[in-house]
């Protein structure tokens, strides 16, 4: 008669290990997705800031080329329309204003925009300001 070998059954142990490892990997992947979202927002914010500087520089160049801060109204209107139209190189919710000083020796160029995906918080509105001397 052969001796009977008793085996110890360990059913379910490997399944629990598998579920725990899937849970840990899932949390890691969710963290990476959240990080990617933050990086994308920062990239868009940086791009918007660069675009605002470019738009302000464009108006500053027009003022310097004209030699005066008193530009024709159609030039200013064209620029302000461009600032507010993202499809034409502008910014989302963009507002552009030009304020000459009282003496006419300088002008303040102000560009303001709302960040994409804005929740309405105070820090969602950004601005770029520069002063130009013709």
In short:
With 134 residues, this protein is of the alpha+beta class. Helices cover 49% and strands 16% of the residues. The chain contains 2 helices and 3 strands.
Description of the structure:
This protein has 134 residues and is an alpha+beta fold. It has one domain. It contains two helices and three strands, in the order ααβββ. The protein has helices at 13-66, 73-83, and strands at 95-100, 107-114, 125-132. Strands 1-2-3 form a three-stranded antiparallel β-sheet. The longest helix is centred in the N-terminal third of the chain and has 54 residues, at 13-66. The model has no long low-confidence stretch (mean pLDDT 89).
Give the key terms.
single chain, 134 residues, alpha+beta, three-stranded antiparallel β-sheet, 3 strands, rod-shaped
Q: What topology emerges from the helices and strands here?
A:
Layout: H1 13-66, H2 73-83, E1 95-100, E2 107-114, E3 125-132
Antiparallel strand pairs: 1-2, 2-3
């Amino acid at each position: 008669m052969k001796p009977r070998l008793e085996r110890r059954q360990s059913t379910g142990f490997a399944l629990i290990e598998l579920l725990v490892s899937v849970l840990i990997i899932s949390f890691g992947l969710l963290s990476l997705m959240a990080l990617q979202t933050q990086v994308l927002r920062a990239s868009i914010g940086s791009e918007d800031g660069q675009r605002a500087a470019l738009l302000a520089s464009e108006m500053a160049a027009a003022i310097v080329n004209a030699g005066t801060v008193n530009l024709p109204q159609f030039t200013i209107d064209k620029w302000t329309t461009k600032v507010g139209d993202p499809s034409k190189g502008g910014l989302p919710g963009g507002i552009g204003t030009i304020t000459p000083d009282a003496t006419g020796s300088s002008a303040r160029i102000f560009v303001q925009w709302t960040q994409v995906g804005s929740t309405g918080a105070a820090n969602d509105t950004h601005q770029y300001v520069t002063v130009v001397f013709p």
